[in-house]
Input
Amino acid sequence: MVYDTIEVEAPLREVYDQWTQFEEFPRFMDGVEEVRQLDDRLCHWRTRIAGATREFDTEIVDQLPDERIAWRTVGGDVKQKGVVTFERVDDAHTRVRLAMEVEATGMAEKAAKAMGIVENRIEGDLHRFKDFIEDRDRATGGWRGRLRPADSSGGGTPTDPATATDDVPPYGMATPPSEDRPLRHGPPYTGPM
Output
């Protein structure tokens, strides 16, 4: 599991709205050549990393405006799942937390994972996202709909990818745990990939 956090100098609504514009991801995600949103829940991705092109589909498992977006792959060459959460710091700043699990399939992917390249790429993507949104007066668009886990193709409510030792809030939590509100315990996400 890869975790990263960044603070963005932009209001919560703007940051969340920008993240919902999946077709804009190639503008700040290294190696992402194209993202096509097929419907409210499904996206088709084409990536090129270390000379290898991969295509895959992702399903939004859970989306709650201004709080979180969770996804998993449902077809193609890549196996991954994750959650990005958004936390208001103040009127002009938002904390973005990303937890992502990527299953290395080929030799190149396994070597990249072992050398920490996946973590570095995600950290770079978050920094480029920060620059992307901070350089604008507002988000390039936004989708404020609610997608519930029970309505996903896997059905049911998946267990959160966050665990008791993570600094990423679980699906149902907008902010990290505190002494007043402890983190729920449970196994990592084990739903269908």
